[in-house]
Amino acid sequence: MKFVPRGLGGAADNSKGGKEGWRSRLKGILSAVIILSVLYLVLGFVADMSANLVPEETESEWFAWVDDVLLADAQAPPPELQAVLDKLITGSDLRPFDYRLCVLVDPTPNAFALPGGTITVTTGLLDMVKSDIGRAMVIGHELGHLEYRHGLKRLGRSLLLAVGMSMVGLDSNALLKQSSFLAEMKHSRSQEEESDSFGLNLVYSKYGTTEGAFEFFEEVHLLQGADEASLIESVQSWAHTHPLTENRLTNLKRQAIELAR
Ligand SMILES: [Zn+2]
Q: In terms of pTM, does the model score above 0.85?
């Protein structure tokens, strides 16, 4: 068969409509941007929803490496802290994680929960919060983050990729290690309030009172009024992980009054 080159038809002739050509190209680019943006938002929403569907066992497998990273610099938890965790989880209807404590030698008061059930507390926080119930509130708050899958939700769209990799039998640990969530353990204001409320309910159900539960929060408020730069720095570091909200303590106190009724 002989090849007959096709002549330039009217459609390809842009000589008279340069402006129109640009317009349609711009339209195309805009449509693509809009479609991709919508897809990005939808994927974010789907990732958030699917965090609750990941089996606890899978979450624990994904984050088993976290302990290796943390335990290298960790101290054994003091028995009184372990007793607080045991009291909170025993007989409670929590997610079936292997809950464990990790104490980091760090003067900065802080606590955070890592997916899979590891609750990390710094020595700075332990020095600051002396009572069992005060510590129970801190641990209860972190258990709230685990219960609501806040850590998993922080993975965002990477979570979907991890789920996909697991489904086809690929190891997603490398992907999760690379994600920046460990370095940026920051929860949203609503996640903090959700975990506060969860923690306080749990403390009340186990201790029968909320008296003294706000020790840590009150200490932080005191620190905020301090002039020493180092103290303020400590609070800022804590506030990065746990955004302070003006009425966080007020909300907790209101809930405490309702619980006592
Ligand atoms: Zn928190």
A: no
